[in-house]
Specification:
Layout: H1 2-14, E1 20-37, H2 38-42, E2 46-49, E3 51-64, E4 68-86, E5 96-116, E6 119-137, E7 142-145, E8 152-166, E9 170-181, E10 209-229, E11 236-240
Amino acid sequence: MKKIVTIFVTLLSITSFSQTWFDLGLKGGIGGGFLLNSTINSDSRFDILPNMNNFFGGKVGVNFGESFGITLDADYGKYTYGFTQSKVVGKDQNLSYKYKISYNAFNILPTLRYTKDASYVELGPQFSFVKNSSIDDEAISTVSSSEAINSKLTGLVFGFGGHMVGNDVIALMMGLRFNYVLSNLTSDMYSGTNFPFTNYSDINTPSKSNPLNVQVVFELNYSLGYFVRASCGRRSAFLTF
């Protein structure tokens, strides 16, 4: 907490000698989703099954000078993670079956952004509120909603990108974003079970599942304007572009 306060105090102090300007944006992204789990990594019966995930939303940004800024993103995404499972009891031992966990989520992302030479780097937390979770287990031919999925997830976001086309007022950016979910995807109710490896009675040790997303992001930014301070330091004005 002290580090976060220090960062924001530093950014606020920058505003005392630089312009403060604001922007709005629309953004969306698509990319791969991967379920990271120690059991999947160590047990030869399982393999990670990448899936395509996507999101769309908007952002508002407060920028201090030409380099530093704070942005607040709000978006809605559809996510699927999975793995293949083989040697399932009662099934053909030579075949593998898909196991998928899907959900929708409303995401809030407050990030710090550094911009230089039309390129940017961003870093911050992500808070996700999960809806409509479901499980598709090919081995038992069923799709069902599940209380086994955590309804609130916290993650870490890192991204970078650059200017594609546009000017100082409106511009299209493209970048790459990595999102690692720090929270266990398994809900507290099921955290003491072998979920999601419910088809294997020999797996009785709980293991944590952490999704990872790698997505290409497109962002359309519109600069609203900026505050300037009079030379006497007593008055400020908001100027639009």
